[in-house]
Amino acid sequence: MGLPPGVDLGYTAAVLLGIGTVTYLLRALPFRLLNYLKGSDFLAMLSITMPVGVMLILVVFTAPSFSWKVAAAVLLTVGLHLWRRSAALSIVTGTAAYVALLQI
Questions:
Q1: Nearest in space to 87 (alpha carbons), one of 59, 48, 57
Q2: What is the chain's percent helix, strand, coil content, to nearest 5?
Q3: What is the pLDDT of residues 25-75, one digit of tens each?
Q4: Sign of the alpha-carbon torsion through 52, 55, 61, 65
Q5: Please, which contacts does 73-76 make with residues 24 or more away whose CB atoms are closer than 8 Å?
């Protein structure tokens, strides 16, 4: 069992090497750049806006299928966030509640 007809091993290896290199760089570069960004205003702004951005993405993702289940999960998430002020707890709990309600 080999490659399909017309598929060259060298070409396939080159494509996979390129994909692997890009994937590695996309995952490694942020950690390398973190040393240069420590104490920057940009990183401080991201630490404030990213949790809100994640919440917005979750809401926009679920908006097309808006139902009582979505409304309940959103209300739970917003209420929990206002009570505990923990973005991670709100996101995880809201997502879990949404997935659980979808199963009903």
A1: 48
A2: 85, 0, 15
A3: 999 998 888 888 888 888 888 888 888 888 888 778 877 777 888 889 989
A4: negative
A5: 73/97, 73/98, 73/101
| C-alpha distance from residue 70 to each of 49, 67, 76 (Å) | 23, 5, 10
Q: What is the pLDDT of residue 1?
A: 64
* Straight-line distance from the first to the last Cα atom of the chain, in angstroms, rounded to the nearest whole number: 45
> How far apart, in whole angstroms, are the C-alpha atoms of residue 12 and residue 10?
5
pLDDT score of 5: 86
99 vs 39: which has the higher pLDDT? 99
The sign of the torsion formed by the CA atoms of 93, 95, 100, 102 equals: positive
How long a stretch of residues is the chain?
Answer: 104
- Taking the C-alpha atoms of residue 94 and residue 28, their distance in angstroms, rounded to an integer, is 30
